[in-house]
## 1
Amino acid sequence: MSNRKVKVYCPATVANLVCGFDILGLALQDPQDIMEVWEKESPGIEIIPDERYHLPVRPEENVAGASLIALIEEAQLTTGFTIKIDKRIKPGSGLGSSAASSAGAVVAANYLLGNRFSKNDLVRFAMNGEKVASGVKHADNITPCIFGGITLIRAIHPLDIVALNVPDLFVTVVHPQIEVKTSDARQILRKEVQLKDAIRQWGNIAGLVTGFMKNDYDLIGRSLEDVIIEPVRSILIPGFDTVKKRCREAGALGGGISGSGPSIFMLSKENKEAAACEMIMQEEFDRLGIEYKTYLTRINVQGILVEETR
Ligand code: HSE
């Protein structure tokens, strides 16, 4: 057992990227969770929670704990870990709060174990945390959180991750202070898709990925369209249609619901368009009388950062 302690900085993430439900995501520079992790002699996981939120502390019910259990089992460890969480990405925001905790815990533990697992292994472990949070093992937040940049999950069985090119983009986010549980936002989705909608959607996904790879901003903008998930989920988010329409008119390439919401994100080529989006978001949520937080940020290309503190 080592006596070392690490601090990990875990970025918020935008999953789906409008048309790529459960397969596309990107990491943000801001906000980030901070976690401290160290090994302990006795087996098991001790969680020191962030007191601002009432998150479960029993490891199997906690997203970071469930992810670490998977790592500990595979590594056949007889020692355990203590985790201290400073949560800056609000749970239920649609900004990958649970993924940041799940991914941060396994990245930190892996560092303490001498990096014996690959990033793909870490995604696999952290998916257990997403299962606790939403009932389903999806990886579209965890993967960009760990890898940084923009990522495509081509398949999860077996895991096939593709890191995409990252064009120079500004990201504006508004987080209205209402909670949308991912499990609820998944529950309301239709289980069947019409072929004509599927055709339009996979055209958009292919267009978006190509747009990223070729730094083709017009193609990115045209492809930021979701005919399957957004029409159902957007009804949970007051102001969504107005914000989206006005931001596009102000020059944003496009955007939509961040993950399962309620946050809304917009991608812009220039800072001035991103700043105009932020103002529109503020105006709209002021008008609605809903508290909110905005971020004008960039894509985080490095993913979770590990700092050894002892
Ligand atoms: N792809 C997931 C969803 C992300 O939209 O339900 C949840 O954060």
## 2
Amino acid sequence: MKKQEFWFVVGSQFLYGPEVLETVEARAKEMAAELSRTLPYPLVYKVTAKTNREITDVMREADYDPSCLGVVAWCHTFSPSKMWINGLAELRKPYCHLATQYGSEIPNDEIDMDFMNLNQSAHGDREHGFIAARLRMKRKVIAGHWKDKRVQERLASWMRTAAGAAFSRQLRVMRFSDNMREVAVTEGDKVEAQIKFGWQVNTWPVGKLVETMDAVTEKEIDALMDEYRASYDFATEDMKTVRYQAREEIAIRKMMDKEGCEAFTNNFQDLYGMEQLPGLASQHLMALGYGYGGEGDWKVSAMMAIMKRMGKDGNGESAFMEDYTYNLAPGAKYSLGAHMLEVCPTIAAARPRIEVHPLGIGDRKDPARLVFEGKEGDAIVVSLVDMGGRFRLICQDIKCVKPILPMPNLPVARVMWQAMPDLETGIECWITAGGAHHSVLSYDVTAEQMKDFATMMGIEFVHISKDTTVDSLEKELFLNDIAWKLGQ
Ligand code: MN
């Protein structure tokens, strides 16, 4: 495992004398150590900063050190912010201003001017906040007592997001074939994507994949079949078909691992030399943490891989999803999402079944796939679209429900949900914003995390929540358009 951590930088100055500075340092160390026990990454105390030099040095080191995923800053005392300008102006890593203080209560009898000079976060954090605002820094501000569970959870979420951002900066996406013919929303500027997100998106020939498939041994397939048996129920006798999916999975994974890719796309219009569209193969790869996008959709594939890293334990409950059909009956208004085959089984409500059915699209043999229902619970759907000149990240709050119908003849994984604020308004907002039919559906990444991710990447963010109206969204999009054309 690569070492990954966040740095804790505490602002102060020489004005208060050595005793105060020693106390500040001791408390900062104590806070970093205690917080590290609950946070998903260590928070490492670095320095009580008192000079321009100290601050510039630590920010440069943070940028340079690949183990540092971001900087958390706090001002125990007042720290004049002109000495922060050079360091903050250079910092490129995610930055969080933790507006907290050591103690949670004002001690009635004890409080005097010495106490005030030592415990003046309310004072120091404002000076510190101004300079970041003046620099137009991309940052996160979290306020509250550092032992408060809600504060710790928000800091933890921000850390997971920053880890996703670091993952994004080095992500490589393997494309087999190009986009589905004539489709617009899956297109995009790959050069701009690399500038903004760091993604290296490149294409490999399907012929190379077929060659790699031919070289897969029966022994390798046996081993993967054992993995399938451990995770899934077999609802088919057709082992030949399932083994063919295993062959595809092994070959795709070999090619990705060889090139250091952690996300991939394919296109049912280009399966030359392949007997089946990869279904189970893609699904099991997604369960392992690889991103996937159908029809050549590299944007959704990359976002899925990143959102999995941003979820719990670095491989969370985020899945490639597609809006398919609605239930528009009064009192029971839902969206039904699925894909031809490829939905990640980490979002399954129960143990998935391997089934073999014909596929009307793609002109190949009946493929094996995992069939299941998605879990109930609050979730989000996320779509990244290229607006021409900028990327827009759209996030909608949804509530997933147990499908209201058994749908026995639907041979794919499916999820049923209620869009916020309600089905019709939700659809109108999504369509108004230009959201795609492909999305990433996530149970464990939050809308706040997606907003933080957009901030870290310097892209537009649109959130459709229970409070959104079509009018307010239209105004927001209109103003965003002007702001982005002006360069924000
Ligand atoms: Mn699709």
